Amino acid sequence: MTSLPPQPLSPLDGRYRSAVGTLGEHLSEAGLNRARVQVEVEWLIAQTDRGFFGTSPLSPDQRAQLRSVVTEFGQADIDELAALEATTRHDVKAVEYYVRRRLELLGLDAIAELTHFACTSEDINNLSYAITVRDAVREVWLPKYRAAIDALEALAVEHRDAAMLSRTHGQPATPSTMGKELAVFVHRLTRIAKQVEATEYLGKFSGATGTFSAHVVAAPDVAWPEVSRQFVESLGLTWNPLTTQIESHDWQAELYARISHANRVLHNLATDIWTYISLGYFRQIPQAGATGSSTMPHKINPIRFENAEANLELSCAVLDSLAATLVTSRLQRDLTDSSAQRNIGVGFGHSLLALDNIQRGLGEVDLDESLLLDDLDGNWEVLGEAIQTVIRAEVVAGRSTISDPYALLKELTRGKRVGAAELAAFVEGLEIGDAAKQRLLALTPATYTGIASKLVDEL
């Protein structure tokens, strides 16, 4: 048997690449290296702007040429860095040598020793991860998350008045509308979106143990904490003034916990939609050329939502592990975070794939309102709640002397099928005011939805 040519080990880089590939722009090794180059370049510019050690600010043309190293970073640069790392056996040192080569090519040899000046690898890494994760969240994950919410909200608005039987504990219960039930998920997911959008992306830039020791020895008169703060903030990040060798990763733990929370709400949505499909409430729209079962031609399986469930679980497994692992570092530094953080893209990738499936799935279902109405009409006993509640109000108002209204309705309805005629006869015989009696006689399961449709306006 011949060997296969090199193949992607993860389905995210193989089968599902078209759905998640945009994350690679940020959360791949190449994306990380480009961010590392960006941090090194911006640190060079910041130092020369301050005239460190007799240097002069770079000209506008020199700045543009230096920054183009980042903006034009491509496959040749990826390959060059890989070759350098093969020799250095150190990823950040390879980046330093790469930047030095660029300075030589641009005729900026005079500032070469300012490359990586007073930096530990983690000064570069923590800022690079913050940049790449921030951009991946803002430019890729959040837009897809918002698109899924928008698709769900459109369904909620469309079906705001579609009365349906609720099923608390899986049993017939007080009716609602499909729109209101979907709006609950929209509200939950939107609230989490705001939390994700409010994430602080922290960065440190303070040397080997967070003390600015090398900085002070080299330039004792410089206000290094202020220089550090301004540099970190110039990258669009929030400065962390108190760290060890590493930035403590608490912001990452907070963010990944929020993404996992979103994943779990989405998982709840996927299982509910799957159940509504199983009940027949939603019909799946056949897709041209698609096969539901290899042996049963009639089937349209709810694969979008099943795929989403699996990928949401995988995403949570990775992100939960990262959130738990990254907040611990032995004493001033250990290297467990280095390997762990290389899987950030995996966690986001499975979540993004799930979002893609949910958004597509929501566009491939159609509500069967006639079935919803039939279901309601077969469960008149759910009006027992309304009847006993009205009786209690009538007792308080002095228009009834019925004792224990709940027990009275329990005897009539619990575990039984009660039809419209039986309930009407029961209501006719109640000792309650005429206005209350007429309200109950006019009530049907399809109209017993309270203000469910209006609650959709809360969106």
From TrEMBL:
<feature type="domain" description="Fumarate lyase N-terminal">
    <location>
        <begin position="64"/>
        <end position="308"/>
    </location>
</feature>
<dbReference type="Pfam" id="PF00206">
    <property type="entry name" value="Lyase_1"/>
</dbReference>
<dbReference type="Pfam" id="PF08328">
    <property type="entry name" value="ASL_C"/>
</dbReference>
<comment type="pathway">
    <text>Purine metabolism; AMP biosynthesis via de novo pathway; AMP from IMP: step 2/2.</text>
</comment>
<protein>
    <submittedName>
        <fullName>Adenylosuccinate lyase</fullName>
        <ecNumber>4.3.2.2</ecNumber>
    </submittedName>
</protein>
<dbReference type="InterPro" id="IPR024083">
    <property type="entry name" value="Fumarase/histidase_N"/>
</dbReference>
<dbReference type="GO" id="GO:0016829">
    <property type="term" value="F:lyase activity"/>
</dbReference>
<dbReference type="InterPro" id="IPR020557">
    <property type="entry name" value="Fumarate_lyase_CS"/>
</dbReference>
<dbReference type="InterPro" id="IPR013539">
    <property type="entry name" value="PurB_C"/>
</dbReference>
<keyword id="KW-0658">Purine biosynthesis</keyword>
<dbReference type="InterPro" id="IPR000362">
    <property type="entry name" value="Fumarate_lyase_fam"/>
</dbReference>
<feature type="domain" description="Adenylosuccinate lyase PurB C-terminal">
    <location>
        <begin position="329"/>
        <end position="449"/>
    </location>
</feature>
<keyword id="KW-0456">Lyase</keyword>
<comment type="pathway">
    <text>Purine metabolism; IMP biosynthesis via de novo pathway; 5-amino-1-(5-phospho-D-ribosyl)imidazole-4-carboxamide from 5-amino-1-(5-phospho-D-ribosyl)imidazole-4-carboxylate: step 2/2.</text>
</comment>
<comment type="function">
    <text>Catalyzes two reactions in de novo purine nucleotide biosynthesis. Catalyzes the breakdown of 5-aminoimidazole- (N-succinylocarboxamide) ribotide (SAICAR or 2-[5-amino-1-(5-phospho-beta-D-ribosyl)imidazole-4-carboxamido]succinate) to 5-aminoimidazole-4-carboxamide ribotide (AICAR or 5-amino-1-(5-phospho-beta-D-ribosyl)imidazole-4-carboxamide) and fumarate, and of adenylosuccinate (ADS or N(6)-(1,2-dicarboxyethyl)-AMP) to adenosine monophosphate (AMP) and fumarate.</text>
</comment>
<dbReference type="InterPro" id="IPR022761">
    <property type="entry name" value="Fumarate_lyase_N"/>
</dbReference>
<dbReference type="InterPro" id="IPR047136">
    <property type="entry name" value="PurB_bact"/>
</dbReference>
<dbReference type="InterPro" id="IPR008948">
    <property type="entry name" value="L-Aspartase-like"/>
</dbReference>
